[in-house]
Structures are given as C-alpha cells and as structure tokens.
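fyi for ur records
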Amino acid sequence: MPTTLTGLQKPGHQWAYIANSEPAAIAETLVAFANSDGGWLVLGIDAEGALGALRTDDEMADAVRAAERLCRPPVRTVNWQQREISGGSVAVIRVERSNELHTLEDGRVLVRRGVENAPAAGDEVERLLASRPIGDFELQPVPGATRDDLDEDIIDEYLERRQKRNPRQTILPKDKLLQQIGALTEERTPTVTGLLLFGKEPQFFMPQSRAVFVKFADTQPRGPEGALGYGRREEFTGALPLIIDRAWRVIWEEMDKQAVVKGLQRQEQTEYPSTAVREALVNAVAHRDYRVTGRGIEIRMYTDRMEITSPGGLPAHITLENLVEEHYSRNPRLVNGLYQWGYIEELGLGIDRMIEDMVKAGHPPPKFECPGHRFTVILYNARDQAKAAQPWEGTMNERQLKALEFVQQHGGITNGDYRQLCPHVGAETLRLDLADMVTRGILLKIGDKRGTRYILK
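which gave:
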C-alpha cells in the first residue's frame, strides 16, 4: 500500500523519486539536477509512494557514493534528511545547481525537463556552458598530465621575454614562478593554463585547443574549380604561442600583396592590415572558452573577407553593443601570459586598434557576430584607396592639440575627458572641436551617446 510523505511534493522539475539502489539511475538524476536548477532527490520510495529495496541509511549512502563516481566531475550532494516511515526509511537529498557542467561516465549531458532526465543537444550544451562562470577553470589540474608534459624550451623563452618586459621584477626559481602564474599546482601538476601556454602536446589532453585554417577560391566555401571544397587547409597544434605563430605564417603566405611606392621608398601593402589580422587572431586564442569541447578556432579566408571564429561567445556582461567600450577577460591568466610573452602589446585596446587599422587602410570597419555561442570577427578586403588615411597637414587650435596629445597617450578620448582637459570651455565648443577633427580625418568616432569615444584615424 503506498505510503504518504508529508512535506514532499509531487514529481516534477525539482523533485525526483528513486526506490532502488541502482547507482546509474541515481547518477542520471544528480547530473540532471546539477545542470539545471537543482532539486530534491528522494531515495527509497517511488513516485507512487511504494517502498523500494533501500532499507538502511548505510545502503542509501553507499548507493549515492557509487552514483557520484559515475558523474564527471562528481556532483556534490548536501543536506541529507532521513525520514522514518512505516517499514523503513527514506532519504531526502538536496542537489544544488552547479557552477560546472556535469556529464555521466559515458559522456552524456543530462538536464531536467518536467519529471524526466533528458539528454542535452549540442547547442544546449554550449548554452549551459556559457551560463556558468569560468571560476577557477584555468587553475584546474589536468587529469593525467605531469610536469614532464611541459616544454622546457617554451618555458625558458617565456621567462626570457617576461624578464625583458619586467626588468626590475624578482627572478624566482622556475617552478615557483610557474606556480605563481597558475601554470602548476603545489603538487607540480600542470593546470589548464600551464598546459595551454607551455605544453608539449596540449591537444592530447584538450583536443579543442587546436586551430584550423581554410582558404576558399570564392566568396562561398568553394575550391579552385568551383566545386564545394577548399584550396588549402592547415591544422595548428601545440602550445598557444606556437599556434599563433604558425597560423600567422600561413595567413601571411596566403594574403595578397602589392608593392606601393611612396616618395622614394618602396613599401609592401598587404591585403589586410597585418596588425588587424594579428589582433583578431590573438584575441581568438586568448579569449575563447576552452571548456567548449569538440570545436577549435577556425580561420576562413574567402576572396572578399577573412573570418576568425572562436568557440564560447562573448563572456560575462560583454555584448556586441558595448564591445568597444567594455573590457573583460574570460581567461585572465592566459591573457596575462600572452601579454608577458609580447603577443598582446597593450591590454584592453585590441578591438580599438583593429577598427582603427582597418579604417586607416581604407577598408570597412571589422564586423563582429555572435551567433549561438561562438564569436566571429569578419575583416573585409574591399579597400577604397580614396578613404585610406593620408598624412594630414593643416592647423589645429590649442584645445585640439591637447586632445590629440591625450589620444596619443591614452589610446582614445571621450567628451568627458575633453571637458576635464579644457574645464573653462563650453561643452558645445568642445563637441564641435572633436567633430571637426573627425571631418578632417584626424580622429575616428566609435560608439554612440554616452559610449562615444574618439581614437586616432
């Protein structure tokens, strides 16, 4: 005869009942709750109130511990409540929503839908990842990796460049410094940061950290003969600095180039500004979400554009609307490592510089897209020589000279900055000063309303 339990709700999105001791069934519910909104799991009785095979507290605890071992990573259960009922007891277990994405031992990702534990599709998995904070993912030790999986030559090159950038910094023992920057744990196990920056074969442990270059002979994904396909395909593996160098080398080889004579000097003009391409490439490597498996960075070169796509979408509060003004690092330790290495020249100015260099060369500004949970930078090669920035000659008033000096020192200027530089001048006069400099091609206006910023054109 079914037993009535007071204080418990009917099976649903946050309530599940399992009567037997099968760890696999318990593990499925633990993963589904942790990946969704959390919930309460009642062990020892089914949804109809019929008692199951679980009878003692120890049996229930053993079943849950066995189930936890089937979850990757283990799901932590909290707030056990034992309830004595006629014929035995049940356990009511609270499962919190997790900051991590959990899978079962066989790789399935489950979520809670109504009264069922349902598998999540590929796009849904990416949404689940994007909704969770990175936390200390960069500091997580990589299972199976050892200190020997780090490349000493790469580490030594990093240390040399870091010391040049920070000559007054105290020189620490190698492993001590690696621990300080989050590349090694205290037990000398490589972390995600350590493996990505210095690993001999990071893709053995994290296959998603590779990058792929594909060149098409059309504006669509077609090969040289017009059929669907590609003209050249290259895959890049190794530590992130090597991926950046190798990818850049191939992009450089495939870009169109022409000689331009200015005055008495011969200069090489590339299809895209080199600095803009490198910024887009480094940003993709530095800011992608390395928790997203099954997809690497993609570089696609068409006849009219180049697309660089990184998995994971935009982080935290960053949107396409505030991308230029706001700065947030999804992987602060990786970003700092690449900065110390010299791949990032100045933190927080990559997007600004990319826009400035493209416009200065006569191209349309870069286009940014965030479909699903990936981020794409599109560089168009529709160069308009008439729009390419020419050396400017003319006169500026004293206020404008102050503004120009400020831009050169700080990378940009806002209306607020200008008012602080010239506190005794009316706001409309200052606005006209900046508008004049935009009209004459000295400054480039970025953003709108309160987010307006001016950078060098």
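The chain has three domains: 15-120, 132-390, 398-456. thats all i got for now
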